[in-house]
């Protein structure tokens, strides 16, 4: 992170991030306020409304609406002061962790939202751990401070202990619950006062010249001031100061306190992201890494979404640009197939709506409509045979056999399943023996989503049935040993949707047995998507 050359200003002003949280902590509300301050929407409340409209356009989302969970991720770009923010939405439900994981490969930072009354919840913890794997910088927003919340030190302690990360307060709350009046902005010595009457109003901000400034007493009732001064003294003694370097290497998170619903603390968080948040970072790739300032354009697909418009069977590949300056109409090489693609109608996810992208820079997310050529993990370059690495595919934890209601429609079923496999929504295995397909997912809810999408999008009723297998492992190793292994275990062998060989397992015992009997064969639970 240090000793990096200065980035071209257009790239340096980009902040590409995701929001991670436990359901209900306030991610949607915070997103809405981000867009409001980014000038992308005129009035709060439009994100939800817009979300609904988008959902009706892609009809499978009926189920998402019914269940009130988000199964799809999208991207939103908006300007904040001199910065361009790219917010990549992560699906909130725990069943979609693989999708979430891949989304996090496309961002440079994460904003972690926690509920001030609940602290670190299970889903926050899981998502945090994923960010940790990549040392992603994390900025924390402690939300719902307008309600009864936990003691500030308790919240900070809990984050430090549960997540093993240093926490540095960027602001400090004054008063609790009904008595919460605002925050002291530690980074800029300002008093921010919340307006409960107008939820969309930016807080009144008063410059303070240090904690003994008499202005504090003018705005803060005596009993709250005493407690605040006591706490902030203690905080200064006990808690670390913000170290920008530690933030960037993921070992420290600054925390802001606020209330997304009351638009309070949000602007300070955005300022923090702009000031301290990372610029577009170097992308790991083979045979060499990609630096954002490189002249040539490279990008990689981290998500594919099909049937965004049911009238056209289009798919949109979400591409994170890793380097260069992209212009519409450019011809890029699709490294996997070595074919050139003219990118004539790229989509930029400007928060207002989908819009044609005339240009984009390293750090941006663009959508490329295509007919299935682009898959998750694919790299696009200006000719160099380079492949982005680190986008994993996980072995599914649940397997079921999938059959078409009408046996004559098996071919259609195969097509539908392959499409979902390419989207990353499921793994599809074709066993060497027997008919039908075995579908693997990470969470049980995905079977329902798939069944309802296949019916809606392909007019094909399907049945998912219990399978004798419970998991799958990719097979690797010395070719002769692998061939021998496959020949002797045909009833367990299948090919995945990319044509790679997998070993279907019933019990951990199966995996242990292979380890014992075939020392030259390796079974793996993840594979790199390249
Ligand atoms: P999520 O996307 O993380 O699931 O959370 P979301 O923003 O939908 O917020 C969950 C609930 O918390 C919503 O209430 C929302 O209004 C509320 N909320 C968000 N921020 C704050 C805050 O700063 N203070 C308080 N008191 N509440 C907040 P809901 O009743 O589920 O929905 P709604 O009817 O208000 O839309």
Q: Which range does the strand content fall in?
A: 25-35%
Question: How many helices does DSSP assign?
Answer: 15
Uncertain segments: 42-73
- What class do helices, strands and sheet pairing give? alpha+beta
Q: Average the pLDDT over all residues and give the rounded result.
A: 86
Share of helix, binned: 25-40%
Shape by Cα distribution = globular
Give the CA-CA distance, first to last residue.
Answer: 26 Å
Strand line-up in the sheet with most strands: 17-16-22-13-14-21-18-19
Small molecules held by this entry: guanosine-5',3'-tetraphosphate
Rounded to an integer, what's the Rg over CA atoms?
25 Å
Main location: cytoplasm
Domain Tr-type G: 12-281
Keywords: Cytoplasm, GTP-binding, Nucleotide-binding, Protein biosynthesis
GO biological process, one term: regulation of translational termination
What characteristics describe this protein?
530 residues, alpha+beta, 8-stranded antiparallel beta sheet, 15 helices, 29% strand, globular, binds guanosine-5',3'-tetraphosphate, Transl_B-barrel_sf, guanosine tetraphosphate binding, GTP binding, T_Tr_GTP-bd_dom, Peptide chain release factor 3
